[in-house]
Design a protein that fits this description.
Elements: E1 26-32, E2 35-40, E3 46-50, E4 57-63, E5 68-75, E6 81-89, E7 93-99, E8 106-114, E9 117-125
Antiparallel strand pairs: 1-2, 3-4, 4-7, 5-6, 5-8, 8-9
């Protein structure tokens, strides 16, 4: 993605510059009021975590065009891997519920790897 533009104006501002040459394809496909939705390249990997902070469970949404085995791991603030899973992703959206109830309170990183792409998202575990 080249740019993300947030604005409370009804019209797009001028002077946002040309598209970057090192980014994949993305295009604006809808504008509703002052909010724009952006379609991102099908080969992009997106991970969403909720609720964050978490107490007993963490929902993980993995979106991409890839289907097959993905690696999901959780590391603590010291870099120690506290959990690792191999998951079979059968569609563009894979949702999983991870039990985090036994993790100590603190900040963690969840890493998702599929093929040659990876995404790392941070979450907070509360008591």
């Amino acid at each position: 993605m080249d740019k993300v533009l947030l604005s409370n104006l009804d019209a797009l501002p001028a002077g946002t510059g040309p598209a970057a040459s090192n980014c994949g394809t993305a295009k604006v496909f809808a504008q509703m009021g002052t909010m724009q939705q952006v379609e991102v390249a099908a080969d992009a990997l997106h991970v969403a975590l909720f609720p964050n902070p978490a107490r007993t469970y963490l929902m993980v949404d993995v979106r991409s065009g890839f289907t097959g085995r993905i690696n999901v791991s959780i590391t603590d603030a010291t870099g120690r891997r506290v959990r690792e899973l191999l998951v079979d992703k059968a569609s563009n959206l894979h949702r999983m519920r991870l039990d985090v109830s036994e993790l100590a309170s603190g900040t963690y990183q969840l890493q998702v790897i599929e093929e040659d792409r990876q995404v790392i998202e941070q979450f907070v575990k509360l008591r």
